[in-house]
Design brief:
By secondary structure, the protein is mainly alpha-helical. The chain is 50% helix and 6% strand. Strands 1-2 form a two-stranded antiparallel ribbon.
């Protein structure tokens, strides 16, 4: 596994990059005032929604609608 996994890792990285690009492009298209960037050392995309000027109450409501991943 240590000497013959290079092809698999290359394919995995390409797959992950395609998914990241898809998400970033989706956000840019559907939420133009949100800002996000390609992560440099991981797979978490941070999204800055400050461009929407949401109030604390609106943010709290949105957070209450988010369900944790299982």
């Amino acid at each position: 596994a240590y000497t013959q996994g290079a092809d698999w890792v290359d394919e995995l990285n390409e797959y992950l990059d395609e998914n990241l690009n898809y998400v970033i492009n989706f956000i840019k298209e559907k939420m133009p005032r949100a800002k996000c960037y390609m992560p440099e050392g991981g797979y978490i995309i941070w999204i800055d929604f400050s461009g929407y000027g949401l109030t604390d109450e609106e943010i709290a409501f949105i957070e209450s609608m988010i369900k944790p991943m299982e």
